[in-house]
Design brief:
By secondary structure, the chain is of the alpha/beta class. The chain has helices at residues 40-47, 72-77, 94-104, 110-123, 139-151, 169-184, 196-202, 220-225, 230-239, and strands spanning 2-11, 14-24, 29-33, 55-60, 63-64, 79-82, 157-161, 188-192, 205-210, 213-218. Strand 4 (55-60) and strand 5 form a beta hairpin. Helix 3 (94-104) crosses helix 4 (110-123), helix 3 (94-104) packs parallel to helix 5 (139-151) and helix 5 runs parallel beside helix 6 (169-184). The structure holds adenosine-5'-diphosphate and magnesium ion (MG). Magnesium ion (MG) is lined by residues 40-41, 162.
Length: 240
Amino acid sequence: MIDVKNLSKSFGDHLVLDNISEHISPGEKVVVIGPSGSGKSTFLRCLNLLEEPTAGTITFDGTVVTDPKTDINAVRRQMGMVFQHFNLFPNMTIRKNITLAPVRTGLMKQEEADAEAVKLLERVGLADRADSYPAQLSGGQKQRIAIVRALAMKPKVMLFDEPTSALDPEMVGEVLDVMKELAHEGMTMVVVTHEMGFAREVGSRVLFMDGGHILEQNTPAEFFANPREQRTIDFLSKVL
Ligand code: ADP
Ligand code: MG
């Protein structure tokens, strides 16, 4: 589904991703963990060129994303992304937030998108909030909306960058539950998170990033039981 070859990214002379190669298969749930500043967000953002790689090749579903001739907007439509700070359009209703992209891109007519929005809102228990504005919702509600807004584009993969890090603790569970359901439905997911319970329960693979490298990776069971690198052990001792 996603193939990353020799990906490097520098900001000025600061090398943030150092020659990363990685392959993500359809249906995988890859959980990316690691200390702050290790390059997790940059890695995720390079996958859909929100950050432009300094070197390397990214292929998504057969399309070379890093080829300048590629229509990057067409690629991004198929890669849903959810951010720490929701990034909802504050001046639009929830319904409009969800239907804007599918209608603008011609994926759906407004009527069809509205019907789809109702279904998506029901799915996350927010059917009664279609006419609310983002500011009227709690953080957990906003993030559930951000997830279904991404799903409205019927993406082939979902990228999550610390989706629960900005939430009050009591709202983390409701967002993780939506993500778990999505995982069980077979969605291909790449999730940057500090939620180790989620990594264990949902992850098919854990990648540990440190200093711009994927230092080690394994199945969650193996990764948490037998971390190999000292940096991993140090990190886990702080977060577990
Ligand atoms: P993480 O998500 O693991 O905390 P990031 O990918 O956000 O790490 O950042 C990795 C490094 O790249 C950090 O040192 C950060 O300061 C730097 N960095 C990230 N984005 C930018 C940017 N737009 N300009 C300059 N430096 C950046
Ligand atoms: Mg980050």
